[in-house]
Structures are given as C-alpha cells and as structure tokens.
Amino acid sequence: MKIIIAIAFILIITSLTFALAFLMKDKGKSNRTVQALALRVGLSITLFILLLLAYKLGWIQPKGIY
Fold this sequence. Notes:
By secondary structure, the protein is mainly alpha-helical. The protein has helices at residues 2-26, 32-57.
C-alpha cells in the first residue's frame, strides 16, 4: 500500500510540473495546462478515495501522534 501511495504522489507532482511547464511554454494559448491540472485533480481525488477505501477494508491502520 505504501508503494501505491508513493507512486500516486509522484504522479500528482509530475502532473503539476507538466502544468507549470505548459503554462510557461504556451503562455496561455493552449489548453494543455488545464488538461494537466485536471489530471492532477483526478489523481488527487482517486488517491483520497483509495485511502478511504483502504481504511474501511482494514488495509491501513491509523497511527497516533507521538
């Protein structure tokens, strides 16, 4: 489960980086920035739902603050 979460975070950050690169390169003349940001939002929502599902199924357990 930790590997899946790490991969999801890497994909989210990569999508955000591509959005910044498209914004700087295209100067707002194309919608590639919007598509990259929409992908980031989709990945973030998917990760959140995956974490909720994993908690409900008992795959992950909460840890207390030490």
